[in-house]
Amino acid sequence: MPGTRASNRPSPEDEREDRRDASALPEAGEPPRNPRVRFIGDTYRLLFEKNPLPMWVYDVKSLYFLAVNDAAVAHYGYSRNEFLRMTIQDLLPPEDQPALARERGRLDSRTESIGIWRHLKRNGTMIDVEVRGNEIDFEGHRARFILAKDVTERLRAERRLRTAFAVTNVLTESPSFREAVPRLLRAVCEEAGWEYGELWRCSADAASLRWEGAWHVPGFPSHALEAASSGIQIRRGVGIPGTTWETGRPEWIEALTPEAHFQRGEEATALCLRQGLSFPITGRGGKILGVMVFFSRTAREPDPDLLDLMADLGHRMGQVLEAEGLSGPRG
Question: What is the pTM (predicted TM-score) of this model?
Answer without folding.
Answer: 0.73
